[in-house]
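note to self: dont lose this again. the chain is below, predicted strucutre after it. 118 aa total, dont forget to put it in the shared folder this time
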Amino acid sequence: QVQLVESGGGLVQPGGSLRLSCAASGSIFSINTMGWYRQAPGKQRDLAATITSVGSTNYADSVKGRFTISRDNAKNTVSLQMNNLKPEDTAVYYCYAFIRDRYWDHYWGQGTQVTVSS
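---
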């Protein structure tokens, strides 16, 4: 059974930084895209950033230049470095991965809270 486990959320002041990490475990044959989505209170879940197995990245316009996504294919991990955080970045951040164990399927982590407030 595949699991995604996130870590690194918390409370930070505006302008501060946080780093989120996510590790995929279980009977994994291959991982394609990994990434991070976020959901603010009362809003839908939206893309923050994704990265393919060959390192191609995609960012939401609102985070470009402030967030950096990276992954370690050998360890099945993905990270999101978030700098110059703003109050509007406050959300639950969900790790995502498109994984093949027996079949290709979409997997989500349990979510980690990021709160940007003074």
